[in-house]
Every structure is written in structure tokens, then in C-alpha cells.
Amino acid sequence: MLAVIIAVMGTLAGSFLTGALQHYAQRSQRAAAELSARRAAGLDAVADLSVALADHRRAMLVREEIQLAGGNSIS
User: Fold this and answer.
1) What does the buried/exposed string (b/e) look like for 26-52 if buried means 16 or more CB atoms within 10 Å of the residue's CB?
2) Would you say the pTM of this structure is higher than 0.85?
3) What is the mean pLDDT of each run of 10 residues along the chain (75 residues)?
4) Rounded to whole angstroms, how far apart are CA atoms 67 and 75?
């Protein structure tokens, strides 16, 4: 009888441990996915900013070229 009780307790402990490990693994996978999404959003923001800055510099260059050529620039 004692052997049966020990076997059942071992099985329950193993089930509990397996469930806890799966929960921890899922939580760490979720955290990794959120971190990856945050990094991707940050990289997208930096890329958008660099495109906007390049466009602005190009517009300022065209404006200066027009002014140097003696034309009217739109202010």
C-alpha cells in the first residue's frame, strides 16, 4: 500500500513539475517575441527617420541650387 501511495505522489509531482516547466517556457517565448517586436518597431522608426532626413536634405539642396541659379524659391 505504501508503494502505491509513493508511486501516486511521484506521478503527481512529475505532472506538476512538467506543467510548471511548460508554463515557464511559454512565458519566456512570449517575452522573447515581445522583445523582438519592440526591436523591429524601433528599427522601423529609425529607418523612417533616416528616409525623412534624406528627403529633407534633398529638398534643401534643390532649394539652394534654385537660389544660386537666380531663380525664385518657394519659401
Assistant:
1) eeeeeeeeeeeeeeeeeeeeeeeeeee
2) no
3) 91 93 93 96 97 97 91 62
4) 11
CA Rg value for the chain: 32
Q: How far apart are the C-alpha atoms of 43 and 65, rounded to whole Å?
A: 33
Place of cell 533616416: 50
**Distance, CA of 70 to CA of 47 (rounded, Å):** 35
Q: CA–CA separation, 22 vs 17, rounded Å? A: 9
Q: In the numeric block, which cell numbers belong to residue 68?
A: 544660386
